[in-house]
Write a structure and sequence with these properties.
The protein has about 375 residues and is of the alpha+beta class. Helices cover about 25% and strands about 30% of the residues. Strand 17, helix 8 (about 315-320) and strand 18 (about 325-330) form a beta-alpha-beta unit.
């Protein structure tokens, strides 16, 4: 084979994008330097609690070939990263929305764990997926947009949104009132004023089943082509910001929650050990599983952590990737993580500012 043919083949492999991604170890980053809290006392002698991330890279055929000779690489089909019908161009926005949700849940859970009452207000249905093709996609609905009304009737949850179109005949025009999302280059979400958007419903695809919402029976007659999550606004006792520029996904939730509790508490939460954590968090304190745990374990080891807290279902994966010097702790709840840290010499969280019941005088629009 001539050199010219080989060069042409290599160039072709570089240009040929395939439907596969590579997960490789990212960074283990201390959370405390990323956090700013105003309005309550904070601990200047915070522990080192790290979040772990991975690099997600779309692959050309050439990269796919060469990465098979590297260690600590997980290959993921593009279809595994999004729900059926959701195009890959939604992936970035979905990741940043998931991070925004993780930060919100971490803040609420941290304050509630320390004894504060944090009132919640439902705000609408936040779009977390747009099917292609679909009426919503054609009308320009985007991941992160919040639907707050249908035909001037307020929407306070995703089930209310589904109910508003459930029994409409296909081809019915509806007027959505939407707070349009803006996503910065660094992945920060903000919302603009309400805009009207006209969308014509379509017949429901055969792949769509019953909604599961209370009071709605049978399959819907009409369909917009969006999936959603309930929007909430929480009235926090302080202003909190966490700088997670260019990091998407929900997996930093547990690490951010632990770090916030440590920032707001006296004493050492970790017994002065260097601890990393991964796992989703919700406002009830439940910890959920995440992806890329083997690659995150490598990142945590490189950063010098002594302990790595992971979702219970991921313990075997983390231990298989860990060196002998890294101890793996599996948890299913925040309470369990705090108990494990006390066994390592940490103290029970004691808030530096005495919690007060926050009067429900109108929720703040956003806490992030």
């Amino acid at each position: 084979m001539s050199a010219a043919i080989i060069i042409a083949l290599v160039l072709g492999l570089h240009a040929w994008n395939i439907s596969e991604y590579a997960l490789t170890p990212g960074n283990a980053t201390p959370v405390a330097p990323l956090v700013k809290i105003h309005g309550v006392a904070t601990n200047p002698r915070h522990d080192t609690i790290m979040l772990a991330d991975v690099y997600l890279q779309s692959l050309s055929a050439w990269q796919w070939l060469t990465m098979h000779f590297q260690s600590h690489v997980q290959f993921v089909p593009a279809a595994a990263l999004v729900d059926p019908g959701i195009p890959n161009d939604e992936l970035g926005a979905q990741g940043f929305l998931e991070m925004r949700d993780a930060k919100q849940a971490a803040e609420v859970t941290a304050f509630r764990t320390l004894g504060w009452t944090v009132p919640a207000t439902r705000t609408g249905s936040i779009v977390n997926g747009v099917v292609s093709p679909s009426p919503a996609r054609s009308a320009g609905v985007h991941v992160g947009d919040e639907i707050v009304a249908v035909n001037a009737t307020p929407v306070r949850s995703t089930c209310e949104l589904i109910g508003d179109v459930h029994d409409l005949a296909p081809g019915t025009s509806v007027r959505l009132q939407i707070e349009r999302v803006k996503i910065s280059d660094a992945g920060t979400l903000s919302w603009g004023p309400v805009q009207d958007l006209s969308v014509k419903t379509a017949a429901v695809p055969s792949s769509v089943g019953v909604s599961g919402c209370t009071g709605l029976t049978g399959r819907p007659r009409s369909w917009l082509g969006v999936s959603g999550e309930d929007g909430f606004s929480y009235r926090l006792p302080a202003t909190v910001s966490i700088d997670t520029a260019n990091i998407g996904g929900p997996s930093a939730g547990l690490a951010m929650t632990l770090s916030l509790i440590n920032e707001l508490s006296s004493g050492s939460l970790t017994g002065h050990h260097v601890v990393a954590a991964t796992g989703t968090i919700d406002v009830k304190g439940d910890v959920g599983d995440v992806g890329g745990v083997a690659e995150k374990t490598v990142a945590v080891q490189r950063a010098g952590a002594s302990y790595f807290i992971v979702p219970e279902v991921e313990v075997a994966t983390a231990r298989a990737a860990a060196s002998p010097g890294l101890k793996i702790l599996g948890v299913t709840t925040l309470s369990q993580a705090l108990r494990d840290l006390r066994r390592l010499g940490g103290v029970a969280p004691q808030p530096l500012t005495t919690p007060l019941v926050t009067p429900d005088t109108g929720a703040l629009r956003r806490s992030l």
